[in-house]
Amino acid sequence: MDNNTENNIVLEIKHLSKTFGKNPILKDINFNVHKSDVTCIIGSSGSGKSTLLRCINLLEFPTSGEILYNGDEITSNKTNEASYRSKVGMVFQNFNLFNNMTILQNCMIGQIKVLKKDVETSKKNAIYYLEKVGMAPYINAKPRQLSGGQKQRIAIARALAMEPDVLLFDEPTSALDPQMVNDVLNVMKKLANEGLTMIIVTHEMAFAKDVANNIIFMANGFIVEEGHPSEIFVNPKNPLTKDFLGRFINNE
Amino acid sequence: MDNNTENNIVLEIKHLSKTFGKNPILKDINFNVHKSDVTCIIGSSGSGKSTLLRCINLLEFPTSGEILYNGDEITSNKTNEASYRSKVGMVFQNFNLFNNMTILQNCMIGQIKVLKKDVETSKKNAIYYLEKVGMAPYINAKPRQLSGGQKQRIAIARALAMEPDVLLFDEPTSALDPQMVNDVLNVMKKLANEGLTMIIVTHEMAFAKDVANNIIFMANGFIVEEGHPSEIFVNPKNPLTKDFLGRFINNE
Amino acid sequence: MKNYYKTKIISIFFAFIIFLSNTLTVFASDIDNNAKKTFRVGMECGYAPYNWTQPNNKNGAVPIFESSDYANGYDVIMAKRIADELNLKLEIVKLDWDSLVPALQSGTVDALIAGQSTTANRKKMVDFTEPYYYASVVVLVNADSKFAKAKGISDLSHASATSQLNTFWYDIALPQIPNVNKLSAQESASTMLAALDAKKVDLVVTDLPTAKSALAAYKNFKILDFTGNNDNFHISNEETNIAISVKKGDTELKNAINTVLAKMDKNDYDRIMDQAISAQASTLPNSFIQRIIYILDGYGFSFLRGAGVTMLIALVSTILGCIIGFAVGVIQATPTSKHDPIIKRVLLFIIKLILNIYVEFFRGTPMMVQAMFIYFGSAALFNFNMSMWFASFFIVSINTGAYMAETIRGGILSIDPGQVEGAKAIGMTHVQTMIYVIIPQTFRNILPQISNNLIINIKDTCVLSVIGTVELFYVTKGIAGALYTYFESFTIVIAIYFILTFTCSKILRHLESKLDGPDNYDLATTDTLAHTSGLYKYSESPKEEGL
Amino acid sequence: MKNYYKTKIISIFFAFIIFLSNTLTVFASDIDNNAKKTFRVGMECGYAPYNWTQPNNKNGAVPIFESSDYANGYDVIMAKRIADELNLKLEIVKLDWDSLVPALQSGTVDALIAGQSTTANRKKMVDFTEPYYYASVVVLVNADSKFAKAKGISDLSHASATSQLNTFWYDIALPQIPNVNKLSAQESASTMLAALDAKKVDLVVTDLPTAKSALAAYKNFKILDFTGNNDNFHISNEETNIAISVKKGDTELKNAINTVLAKMDKNDYDRIMDQAISAQASTLPNSFIQRIIYILDGYGFSFLRGAGVTMLIALVSTILGCIIGFAVGVIQATPTSKHDPIIKRVLLFIIKLILNIYVEFFRGTPMMVQAMFIYFGSAALFNFNMSMWFASFFIVSINTGAYMAETIRGGILSIDPGQVEGAKAIGMTHVQTMIYVIIPQTFRNILPQISNNLIINIKDTCVLSVIGTVELFYVTKGIAGALYTYFESFTIVIAIYFILTFTCSKILRHLESKLDGPDNYDLATTDTLAHTSGLYKYSESPKEEGL
Ligand SMILES: Nc1ncnc2c1ncn2[C@@H]1O[C@H](COP(=O)(O)OP(=O)(O)OP(=O)(O)O)[C@@H](O)[C@H]1O
Ligand SMILES: Nc1ncnc2c1ncn2[C@@H]1O[C@H](COP(=O)(O)OP(=O)(O)OP(=O)(O)O)[C@@H](O)[C@H]1O
Ligand SMILES: [Mg+2]
Ligand SMILES: [Mg+2]
Fold it and tell me: What CA dihedral angle connects B138, B140, B143 and B148, to 10 degrees?
């Protein structure tokens, strides 16, 4: 999976920066994502990881810089945001499940309304992915009736059910126990093999090491270091990276 | 810290059970918490850990069973819930910061209104704890302007600033990076030494192992196994526990 | 003397009926003129104690022509006596006050026995018989008032007083009391009596029959009648003489009636009037509750029809208004970013501006004024003659829409922005996000507001009376005026409003809890899942269960 | 003939003024009776074209006694001529229509030149001179109507027609048109003209001066005057003769005036009337805009005062209503659990029930009916005589409170329950949670509703006219009636309402965005922290910064 050619580039981030008011959050971000890549973004709290994902999904508009999706500039005015997002999905740090719908409806609505699938197919598909994350028995529950980990798995299933080309995960395992993390990891690995491109923000270094073929380490809004997990986790070059990974490497 | 006598028992949970509608969530829970104990509750997603903490904090009313705080039955009608909660604080899985207040106000309001401290003292105290979690520079921000990890740290600081006798943490490090987890761990250890009693729901086994002097493993609403981390993590007796801890123990 | 307030209500109502169905024409042509032995008498059947409508034939009431109701009162007693003496078959025809003289002139009725005073104007239109009653002007006070012992009008000096608007009682009699503190005139006899009962004034000036009728309703009143005393009001006979009128030139009938009247004197008249008033008092029961039952019995259908019109307008307009409000609110809550194409931004800006003007204008100006401008103005300016019904629905809907737009804008803003992001992230367009995610949640949150608005509409339709919509409040004012039962009628209408609004608000509350859904969920079983998916095979491994 | 609608408004207004300050008494006693050479003439100064008020002395207007305004019109021209001929100093005294006769009888004025017709009733109170005008009855049509060429009233057959309520035009003249489709009477001359302009009717019946005045306002009207034709209305002189009145027995003045009148004939009168009407037309400018300016010039202060009263009641009552609403809403949103002590639950149940009844009752019944019940009923039932002001504030506040209670209940329910839990977890009581956490967030979310309510209150205070509150809408109706400038006056009041409500809604929108706070935060610097805590030493380690 390392021998990606230029033709395979799905997302290209060029000189991206984002400022909230007077606070610069992202500073000159540059990286490429190839087809079927699993890119993990790590970094300390507040370093801008979520903001970066939100920029890629156009939920925040970059202050400057370019984002190319399959070679097309998507920050231009001509982009159809909705159809772009139906191809580039996202799982949020705080889930954002639809409060007015049951779990099943949450997973079906996008398929029916956006992908124009019929109800039966959508339902089968939704239950298929809910089963994958172990939430099939809860199809009649409302989001407010679920535990944190359950909501998180629904959020993952909802995004998967849309069967997008690229999926952005914002800390998809934060509320899960180690066993569940393992299950989700397996699902992701399988999806990666099937050709899904993923960008994952995570604090679980073990998870990142297992699943990723590219690691991006962020600090203070900059990309400090980027590389294959075998390099970053074994031989971090930047002192900030060394400092950040200190505890994880010691634990290994 | 292991030689707690019966006199030192702060919380006593007796035959606690909780049912939502027709679904039993907690089933005959029994355990004691001694002064300065750090009890970690682990278990898979949806096993009832959050519900147990919420029962202890009286946010949910147990269907049956008793909770004794310093020997007093608190589920009786005579309990002053507010004053009980000012002694038994809680950090929520989804933070529940006050949206209408700045970070500083979030950490001060309880001290001023509940503990009746004056504004100056409250402010000093709030900033002291905010500094401990590294959030002092953000005192003027509103919750909606913060990243997940930042909110989580504010939630911890807010609970600490109340200086309660017992603190219930619901996955207090889920949104934090390993480095930050380390910092929080240190803060907790120091607090435990100062005599704070803590019950912590967590998915981070390493964290649980480091900080706890009692581990409770829950599954399907039951307490399956309870004991010192040195026992549970090394020699889990129950097959469910073994299965659950499999990945963690393998990683060690 | 005439209750002008009542006239107004009834005449507008009547005009409306004519307007709609031309029933009067049909009615007039229906009358066959060959029944020679019939004595057709026109009266209003709603001007107590002279004449009124009652639902049964108690106290010798006479059936009203082509109606299931009965007429009674001084006029009816006199009409019966005249018919008896002249050996004619009496037929009572109920007519609008303003239609009395035309009906007489057109020969629809033979005579009017309708409590008419013999004013010069009327004399030109009809021939009057000798008076059949003398309605002297009297003063009504509270029995415990310091003026209760007055011996003449000069004893009433410095009293605060009022009377009915546009009557000679107010215009001519009242100012004759020396140093009187003349307060503003009351719109109807019923409010005049209510003001006296509430001691807002020391006394009211009225005529004897009205005063006597009032005593039936207000036991605490006392009549001061200074007739025969020099220290009394100076009023011309024209105003106080009440006479029967016949068609101009019908001397035969006039003389016949006069011979009957000649057999009676003033004492007879007073006795008959007392008889009528006591019949009225016995018709109108003593206790508050019984009076309410009496009114409901007689006018139940009118109340029902008014309530129906009110509910129809309120419901339809609230629904239309909500739709308008959602459309406007959603557009106004559409975010614009600097990165949208310029055309889209300009267009959205213009649309938002127009909608803003719409909302501010209709929220900001009274519906009554709008109703008049729209109804009259549409014809004057655009030559578009809209129907009263169309105008009613249009005006209330467009107003509700303006209010709802603001409510919905607020409701949308209070939904967690994460919901929008969640929807966008699965590729929903703005419109889809609104329809499937935001509006359902907003709708639930603003249901209390929708309920408020429906209730406001139920009550505010009353301003539509300016364009002639016969809704509940309008109907009630008419009934209150006809029976002098001010508090009773308004108690009834308050109860009706309360029932309508309470029912609506309960139904909406129920909807609220229904939208909230059950507090608990059922775990899907293997069977359900297999059934719903038709494919899915639920794995029962302990691991899955443990999750 | 008299504009009754106007009379009603003005007389209620006047009564209110008396009620408040007894100014009339002061005014009446102020007049010194020694100025022998003075000719005091009473008139209404608001009954165009006979007499009206204008702000300047254009067209020979005469200053009004003790006022900065001027009077003009047919009556003023006649009064000037009489004063000239009799060598007296003219003084015009402005009086309420209902006060004219009493003022004459009390000697406050020497004569009334006020467009009065010589009805029998008046004849009893005053002595009339010879007529100084003959107000023949005419028909007004649209110039493009098919009836515009009618040669007599029989040519008007089958026309739809109306006139003014409670006038002999409507009661006596109109029914003389054969087969007329008589629609309901209009409340005032201005609405009658508006209906004709809007082509809701084919024609209206009125008198010549009114018709001529109307032409000044409506260029598209045509007068059909059948005087001298046999095919005309048959009306008595009593109604059409307009005369000057003097105190009963004041033959000297009466004769003097008659000698002056004897020098003129009907043609002179018509000429002078035309002069007055053209003066009026020149006073009342031609263009819509200029008329509005004219009205504002003359009545600006009245509008202002009305707007002031309206805003005062609306603002105070909205604030009080919000406080009530928050109190009630918070109590109603208090959760009860099975685990609370039984006393607490019973108490809360009773309180909630009472509050529920309060909310449903006041939301569910029209404010106008409530106003009457509370204002009159408080006196009748509890012998508690509340002031009009107290009643106004009380009624509007208590109604706003009922609406706000529901709004706030809904607002509280829509706040994320996590907020309550967060507050409870740090030991806040229910009340503290509400005050510091929930209400501030609810308040922000329901600000659009508060704004809606304030706006509703600004408009709904108009129903308080039933208990005599002189607010904006009430004032406007009076002005519209006095000047026949229906559309102009209501355009002004619509503008005023719009300005009031728009300003309020903008201020509240501003408050909304202010409550939202800035979109970005400033990082606290070492200095700020040191300053705020007075103690705290900010560590500048790179690790802390990196977080
Ligand atoms: N209000 C509610 N109504 C019905 N069921 C509920 C409700 N709240 C929680 N549950 C159910 O109770 C079970 C336990 O939930 P709880 O939040 O305690 O789990 P948890 O152990 O904290 O899981 P996690 O690790 O994912 O946070 C879940 O199956 C959840 O669906
Ligand atoms: N709407 C906003 N306005 C102002 N500042 C914001 C806003 N959203 C985020 N920020 C700031 O941007 C910075 C980066 O936030 P971001 O959520 O991207 O962090 P993160 O790397 O995802 O952190 P975490 O691991 O804690 O989730 C933070 O300091 C945060 O306070
Ligand atoms: Mg983040
Ligand atoms: Mg949990």
Answer: -10
Q: Which pLDDT tens digit goes with each residue over D509-541?
A: 888 888 777 767 777 665 555 444 433 333 333
Q: Does A100 touch chain D (CB under 8 A)?
A: no
pTM exceeds 0.80: no
What lines the ligand 2 site, CB under 6 Å? A 20, 23, 25, 43, 45-51, 93; B 145-150, 175; D 520
User: Cα angle vertex C266, ends C260, C268, to 5°?
Assistant: 65
The secondary element (H helix, E strand) that includes residue C442 is: helix C439-460
Looking from the CA of B179 toward its CB, the CA atoms found within 13 Å total 19
Q: Which of B24-33, C63-72, D172-181 has the lowest mean pLDDT?
A: C63-72
Ligand 1: distance of its center to the CA of B49 in Å?
A: 8
Pocket test for ligand 2, best of B102, B147, B154, B183 (most atoms within 8 A of CB): B147
E strand or H helix at D131: strand D126-134
Exposure b/e, D41-80, CB count within 10 A at least 16 = b: bbbbbbbbbbbbbbeeeebebbebbeeebbbbbbbbbbbb
Give CA separation, D361 vs B173, C166, C500, in Å. Answer: 53, 35, 11
Write the residue with the smallest CA distance to atom 29 of ligand 1: B46
C541 touches chain B (CB under 8 A): no
> Which residue's CA is the nearest one to ligand 1's atom 13?
B46
CB contact under 8 A, C422 and A75: no
CB contact at 8 A, D313 and D393: yes
Q: Is the CB of D546 inside 8 Å of chain A's CB atoms?
A: yes
Beta bridge partners of A249: none
Q: Give the residue carrying structure tokens 């029998």.
A: D120
C433-471 b/e (C-beta count within 10 Å ≥ 16 → b)? bbbbbbbbbbbbbbbbbbbbbbbbbbbbbbbbbbbbbbb
CB-CB under 8 Å, B219 with C520: no
- Cβ-nearest to D546 among A21, A44, A144: A44
Ligand 2 atom 28, closest CA: A46
Contacts of A93 (CB under 8 A, 6+ apart): A50, A170, A171, A174, A201, B148, B175
Which residues, 6 or more positions from D392, have their beta carbon under 8 angstroms from its beta carbon? D313, D461, D464, D467, D469
Q: Measure the CA–CA gap between C317 and C127, rounded to whole angstroms.
A: 52
* pLDDT for residue D543: 36
The answer to whether B110 faces chain D, any CB pair under 8 Å, is yes
Confidence at residue D377, expressed as pLDDT on a 0 to 100 scale: 67
Buried b (16+ CB within 10 A) or exposed e, D472-497: bbbbbbbbbbbbbbbbbbbbbbbebb
B64-69 and B9-20 strand pairing: antiparallel
Give contacts of D 373-392 with C, CB under 8 A. Answer: 373, 375-377, 379-380, 383, 385
ipTM beyond 0.90? Answer: no
> CB-based contacts of D289: which residues, under 8 Å, 6+ apart?
none
